[in-house]
Amino acid sequence: MMKNSLVSIARRALTTTVNSTALNLRCYCSPPSSSKAKLFVGGLSWSVDEKSLQDAFSSFGEVTEVKIIYDRDTGRPRGFGFVHFSKEEDAASAKDAMDGKALSGRPLRISLALERVRGEPVVVPRLRNTGDSSRRDA
DNA sequence: ACTGAGCGA
């Protein structure tokens, strides 16, 4: 029970980007019970399309939404996307079935999509201290 | 043309 509660704790993925002037923080939360029908598909070939993913995943269940993430800087696909299923079990089946399978000649990495935290990414204007040594908080 | 380990506006 208690261990299950600990496991149920939402894990946070923190991406820290250190710049000369600012520190960019992006937080993601893992859904405890909801939005499990959302799959993160990584390792996608840069030549893959949304319709390809939809066609590949619709074979396992009803795909409600398919979106491939493109880089807004270069305009090229980052190589990963998100697939929404109407049923969580179908999403899990598709994940278990398509995970490790090669699409467009490239192995796919499928996992539960982490839900991005609401709001905009936290941007810290400046680092308080470089911290040459690990500081202990009282 | 080449590249990649990554969670979206």
Which properties best describe this structure?
RRM_dom, alpha+beta, RNA-binding, 3 helices, RRM domain-containing protein, disordered N terminus, 4-stranded antiparallel β-sheet, DNA-binding, single chain, RNA binding, 138 residues
Describe the structure.
- This protein is of the alpha+beta class.
- The protein is 18% helix and 36% strand.
- It has three helices and ten strands, in the order αβββαββαβββββ.
- The strands form three sheets. Strands 1, 2, 9 and 10 form a four-stranded antiparallel beta sheet that branches. A four-stranded antiparallel beta sheet has the order 4-5-3-8, covered by helices on one side.
- The model is unreliable at 1-20 (pLDDT under 50).
- The structure holds one DNA strand of 9 nucleotides.
- One of its GO terms (biological process) is RNA metabolic process.
- It comes from Dipteronia dyeriana.
- InterPro entries: Nucleotide-bd_a/b_plait_sf, RBD_domain_sf, RRM2_NsCP33-like, RRM_dom, SLIRP/GR-RBP-like.
- Keywords: RNA-binding.
